[in-house]
Amino acid sequence: MSVEKSGVVIETEGLSVGYGGRAVLSGLDITVRAGQVVSLIGRNGVGKTTTLKTLAGVIPPVAGKASLWQVPANGPLQARAKKGMAYISEERSIIRHLTVFDNLKLGGAKASAVFELFPELESRGKRMAGLLSGGEQQMLALGRCLATSANMYLIDELSLGLAPSIVKRLLIQVRAAADAGAAVLLVEQKPTLALSISDEGYVLSQGVVSIHDDASNLLKRLPEIERSYLSLGELTDVDKQQ
User: Fold this and answer.
1) Residues 30 and 127 in one domain
2) In whole angstroms, how far apart are CA 127 and each of 151, 163, 184?
3) Is the pLDDT of residue 213 over 90?
4) Do 102 and 24 belong together in one domain?
5) Does residue 111 form part of some domain?
6) Backbone angles phi and psi of 240, in degrees to 5
7) Which residue intervals of 14-133 are DSSP H helices?
8) For the CA atoms of 103, 90, 238, 18, what is the dihedral angle to 10 degrees?
9) From 60, 73, 104, 179, which residue has the greatest number of CB atoms within 10 Å?
């Protein structure tokens, strides 16, 4: 689906998300425009992944409204994907018993385009995806999505379990996709990583959005965010090296 740059792609109004009719996050008012990376930041269990699953059509909303491409969000994941949505879950969204080439073919991505983004995958084209390193698996998952015609990306915890150098390479490509006109909603537990490539950020705490601001301003408020909402005890060495 074609979207004008700067046009609203994702918008929620009073959205509540959760399971079994019980909300874990309430009153979400989120906007993501074409050409933007917007981050959802918060500790584990705050509802970041649940929000992405709701927008992707994996689970229904508890209450409120969500619009994609300026029309009410409806239909399952497959229907939204056909309209131009790509969803990368925290499970890395690859089929482990298929080769790299087969994963790309199944995802409708041109192998040459993916190998241009992540050259090391080319020599591993015939290898089973489950035998790749964690970083290579994430490159495969992200590269497969970026090499399609998607104009909206829902990305969950790219940094999970990966070295900082790998994460930075992944995030560079996410930023490039937004600069080319896509809308990106990025879920992260690590604030510095996410905000370094974002335009805006929403900090989630105690079931609501606690802070919404430009990414540049949020980076200046990291000590406050880490202390009040993420707890320094949950930060990893990746955060401390940023």
Assistant:
1) no
2) 29, 22, 30
3) yes
4) no
5) yes
6) -70, -20
7) 48-56, 77-83, 100-106, 111-117
8) 160
9) 104
Q: Which domain holds residue 54?
A: 8-84+149-240
Return the pLDDT at 228: 58
Say if residue 181 is in the same domain as residue 101.
Answer: no
Q: For residue 216, how many C-alpha atoms fall within 13 Å in the half-sphere facing its CB?
A: 0
Identify which of 49, 60, 55, 56 has the alpha carbon closest to the alpha carbon of residue 19. 60
Question: Is there a single domain that holds both residue 154 and residue 221?
Answer: yes
Comparing 15-19, 148-152, 178-182, the range with the smallest average pLDDT is: 148-152
Q: Is the same domain home to 39 and 67?
A: yes
Direct distance between the N- and C-terminal alpha carbons of the chain, in angstroms, rounded to an integer? 37
What residue has token string 């905000």?
A: 195
Q: Name which of 9-13, 56-60, 98-102, 158-162 the model is least confident about.
A: 158-162
What is the distance between the alpha carbons of residues 147 and 112, in angstroms, rounded to a whole number?
9
Q: In this structure, which amino acid lies at residue 175? A: R
pTM over 0.85: yes
